[in-house]
Amino acid sequence: MTQETLTASALPLSGVRVLDLTRVRAGPTAIRQLADWGADVIKIEEPVNPETETEMGGMRLGPDYQNLQRNKRSITLNLKDPEGVALFKQLVKDADVVAENYRPDVKTRLGIDYETLRAINPRLIYASISGFGQDGPYARRPGYDQIVQGMGGLMSITGLPGQGPVRAGIAICDTTAGLYAAFGIVMALFERTRTNLGQWVQASLLESELAILDLQAARWLVSKEVPTQAGNNHPTMIPTGLFQAKDGYITLQVPGQVMWERFCKAMEREDWLDDPRFRMNRDRSRNRVELNSLITEIFSEHPREYWIERLNKAGIACGAVNSIDEAFADPQVRHLGTAIPVKHPQLGDIALVGQPIRTDRHRATVRSVAPMPGAHNEEILSGLGLDAAAIDELRSRHVI
Questions:
Q1: How does strand 240-244 pair with strand 249-253?
Q2: Among 23, 33, 83, 193, who pairs with 182 as Cys (CB 3.0-4.6 Å)?
Q3: What is the pLDDT of residues 106-135, one digit of tens each?
Q4: pTM of the model
């Protein structure tokens, strides 16, 4: 790992200052993107006793918190106290981004909404992430990932046919809302180079979930076709799915007629090419269950590595179905360096999930572990001109 990857000043977002009011998952996911790529992120937290209190989203020394909150500095500010708000507004003067994921009415009640802060800093990018949007009939509802997975239709197409709706195995609405918000922030920063003006960037879990439906959403919007559960099968490309080899599961995808011909040859079942049940994709679709049964029967004769090597050699897409530990032990994953080793002062040697983006000049990494609340109070407040006595006095009154 080069020194360039370890130094924030060498990264693309160096010089961007972010005030992070977010919590739980969607907001921290968005701001992690900025922090990992060099932004100076100041995490604004309520004054807490770290020995007895945790914030929503998990224990501070737990895996989730460490993974989401790395590469940030922390200051504690009581935003229900006028002095805490005043200090926050001082930080806003020199900030590039403020990000929050309160319910839409909370920021106005605290006096830190976009219109208020824009008057202080017209170049400010203000990012809001919510469950259902900043207005509309559901705006003030609490919005959590699983609720939105159900409301947006994702659960209706996830799982095995006839099984009933199934939640995706990750917080996919939170994660995608965070990624879309991060893109919106960077887009606004880019536009600011031309206009010298900030703007209000908004993302919601519901809109993000509908956006990633993509093909399935388009099937309804364009063709008025309501997608249903297809399980491990692809709705249109056959054979595609999950098959059991002698020692475990593999996934397979055979798109199009050319790949189907290659697949039959690799399986030594060229008779399928002339079988009226399987000749064309529409035939295979009608006889999917029978075809999958025949493929499974053949796959069960050999270990999965035998089939993975054989089929990939023929240009057929397939792979092992790994557990999470097996996935991180995979030679390609190890080659890509997805697990970033970190020396934590309390947890010792750990690893965190790396960024999936790289360029020929940069690779984001973990420069600092997730901070404890208020770890940088003195450092940040002294930058506002406060001396040690003033900081101690604010602490004594629970302003920080």
A1: antiparallel
A2: 33
A3: 999 999 999 999 999 999 999 999 999 999
A4: 0.91
Strands (E), 56-144: 72-76, 97-100, 125-130
CA distances to 111, 230, 237, 386 from 285, in Å: 58, 12, 8, 71
Torsion of CA 155, 157, 158, 162, to 10 degrees: 100
Phi-psi region of 315 (alpha: psi -120 to 50; beta: other; left: phi over 0): left
* Nearest Cα to Cα of residue 73 among 20, 33, 27, 5: 20
Other beta carbons less than 10 A from residue 47's beta carbon: 20
pLDDT, tens digit (0-9, with 9 covering 90-100), for 297-306:
999 999 999 9
174 in catalytic set: yes
Choosing from 40, 94, 174, 392, the catalytic residue is: 174
Q: Tokens for 89, please give them.
A: 């507004």
| Rounded CA separation 385/93 (Å) | 14
Coarse DSSP helix, strand, coil percentages of the chain, rounded to the nearest 5 percent: 45, 15, 45
